[in-house]
Design goal:
1 helix, alpha+beta
């Protein structure tokens, strides 16, 4: 039964290769695969002064996440979020500054203890709503229809 031995030999080689590959994967990534980094914002657009809610995950456990708002390649606002308990999940807020111009900006989150690249998502600064109209002026009081009193003639004074 040479054919059976050949199949048995192939089976052993295949099982041995898979076991070796599994061992290599286990050595490279202990405890399984790392988390896939994510970054979400809400809302995705708004005028200056809008507070943007940020949430996401880093690939590995971190202590801090640096968050920047960039417009035309320049940082226009920044904050640092502290990650509770050295986990991968983070959340926080950042406000669109008054210096932001209408158009697209980038929100960048950098997991500081992580070796991965910063995470980025687009945000659109919309034109600010027009200021409220000034209040209407008070109407002028209408003149009264009653005639003005007639002047009283001076009475002569007698001394005597």
């Amino acid at each position: 039964m040479r054919t059976a031995r050949w199949h048995r030999g192939i089976r052993r080689a295949l099982v041995g290769s898979l076991a070796t590959a599994g061992l290599v994967v286990a050595l490279v990534v202990p405890g399984g695969a790392a988390d896939v980094p994510t970054l979400d914002i809400d809302p995705a657009s708004g005028p200056v002064g809008t507070e943007i809610a940020i949430s996401g995950t880093c690939a590995t456990a971190v202590q801090d996440v640096a968050v920047d708002l960039l417009q035309n390649g320049k940082v226009i606002a920044s904050t640092t979020l502290t990650v509770p308990g050295g986990t991968t999940a983070f959340d926080g807020k950042i406000q669109v500054p008054a210096s932001a111009q209408p158009g697209d900006i980038i929100l960048r989150a950098d997991c500081l203890d992580d070796q991965g690249p910063p995470l980025e998502v687009a945000y659109t600064v919309t034109a600010s709503p027009p200021p409220p109209a000034p209040p209407a002026p008070e109407p002028e009081p209408e003149p009264s229809a009653a005639p003005a009193p007639a002047p009283v003639a001076a009475q002569p004074t007698f001394t005597g």
